[in-house]
Amino acid sequence: MQKLVDGVHNFERKVFGTHKALFEHLAGGQNPMALFITCSDSRINPNLITQTDPGDLFILRNAGNIVPPYRDADGGGTAATIEFAVSALGVRDIVVCGHSHCGAMQGLLDPASLTDMPTVRRWLEHAQTTRRIMHEKYTHLDGPALLTATVEENVLVQIENLRTHPSVAAAAAAGKMNLYGWVYKIETGQVFAFSPDEGQFLPLGRTAPAPAYPSAALRPDRAI
Predict the structure, then answer these.
(1) How far apart are CA 56 and CA 12, in angstroms?
(2) Smallest Cα–Cα separation from 165: which of 153, 181, 182, 177?
(3) What gap in Å lies between CA 89 and CA 177, rounded to an integer?
(4) Does residue 222 register a pLDDT over 60?
(5) Cα(203)–Cα(193) distance, rounded to whole angstroms?
(6) Helix (H), strand (E) at residue 29
(7) Cα gap 164→107, rounded to integer Å
(8) Is the C or the N end of the chain the one with fewer CB within 10 Å?
């Protein structure tokens, strides 16, 4: 805890002053570039990975970067954040970013490991589509390869789920919404983006990737 307190004091004394103009500007409102949906894992820092400043990203985090379908909205938390980002803030780009070594996805593959975490187990019910895809399509994989494929498929499933949210569906129908699927590899710092043309995740290039459309998760030629 002391590290947190020391960090706050350092921010106030040494950091805030160098960004004073930015924070004064942000006090007047926010206009984020994108909604960034990612895992709660402490090893993931969206602003560090994307080298963005405060105010650039509207961030939604939970175990497994899960977006429950609108009909199964989790009491309003995730759904409300998405709705506010799209309808109130006018966000037109949404990134769903999974990551390597994801404990939530490991738990999805091994429900028995969640016996003492009933709330986590219930939450992961929102990713049962991912689990079923893995059991039906990836029986030839195990270990790290299976977990990697699960992380990737889960990102695509959550993009599908995003399209069930009315605010996202309306923006997409008007041609004002782009959805992107990313996976961050902790051990190398690389980010992989889903390419609908290639049907697989490829290293993120210097140019903006093509959006991962909802049909992408259902492509029969999906490659890992």
Answers:
(1) 21
(2) 177
(3) 13
(4) no
(5) 6
(6) none
(7) 25
(8) N
Indicate the angle between helix axes 143-162 and 128-137, nearest 10 degrees: 130
Residue 99: both structure tokens together: 């990551």
CA–chain centroid gap for 141, Å, is 24
| Contact between residue 98 and residue 183 where contact means Cβ atoms under 8 Å apart | yes
Fold held by 31-218:
Beta-carbonic Anhydrase; Chain A (3.40.1050)
Q: How many Cα atoms are found within 13 Å in the side-chain-facing hemisphere of 215?
A: 5
Quote the CA–CA distance of 40 and 61 in Å, as a whole number: 5
CB hemisphere CA count around 87 (13 angstroms): 12
Q: Any idea which residue has 């051990």 for tokens?
A: 187
Please list the residue range(s) of the chain that carry CATH number 3.40.1050.10: 31-218
In this prediction, residues 125-148 reach a mean pLDDT of 96
Q: What pLDDT was estimated at residue 211?
A: 80
- Which sign, positive or negative, has the C-alpha torsion 64, 155, 191, 81? negative
CA distance 62 to 65: 5
Distance, CA of 56 to CA of 42 (rounded, Å) = 20
Please state the separation of Cα 123 from the chain's center in Å: 15
Q: Residue 208 has what DSSP assignment?
A: P
Q: Is the pLDDT of residue 208 over 80?
A: no
Given this model, what pLDDT does residue 75 score? 58
Nearest residue to 169 (alpha-carbon basis) of 70, 68, 74, 52:
70
